[in-house]
Fold:
Amino acid sequence: MDILELSAISYQLSAISYQNILYANEMMTTDSLKLAAHS
Structure:
């Protein structure tokens, strides 16, 4: 493996984790909105 392959892999991993963070934030936001609507 050369440095380009390694950087491409790390870039893909960081993109995936970034999407996971966005998804988790969205889920938490909708959950708290649902809780606020019920109370």
Notes: The mean pLDDT is 92. The chain is about 90% helix and 0% strand.
